[in-house]
Amino acid sequence: MNTGQASPERLESPLVWIDLEMTGLDTAKDMVIEAAVLVTDGQLERVIEAGNSVHVDRRFLVKDMPKLERYLHYRIVDVSTVKELCRRWYPAALTPPLKKGRHRALEDIRESIEELKFYRSTFA
């Protein structure tokens, strides 16, 4: 039965953050030019160093890194979806951290982690 409470094990499960920079968004003709990976614990603290168009990134992983992609969970945490829901449901409270917008893979992941921490502290 779902009690609405997350299990302690689920709360502490690691999250794998992946960001790819590509020459475009067409998986048939474009290619990955930069990749970054970070792993955080359940408290969104970095565990090891290894955001935001995660679904396009996943398609490039399927094409270019299928072994890695098969290792990942099928659920994807998309911070831009959280942002959009907060924008719709809590517009007065929405002042997320500013992003630098340099579009570098590792920096994108770090900024996404900080943004998700903001949403957790603001709306949890």
UniProtKB/TrEMBL annotation:
SMART domains in the cross-refs: EXOIII (SM00479)
Keyword Manganese included in the entry's annotation: no
Entries under SUPFAM superfamilies matching the protein: Ribonuclease H-like
Entry GO MF terms: 3'-5'-RNA exonuclease activity; nucleic acid binding
Source domain of life: Eukaryota
Name used for this protein in its record: Exonuclease domain-containing protein
Organism from which the protein derives: Vitrella brassicaformis (strain CCMP3155)
Protein family (similarity comment): Belongs to the oligoribonuclease family.
InterPro entries: Oligoribonuclease, Ribonucl_H, RNaseH-like_sf, RNaseH_sf
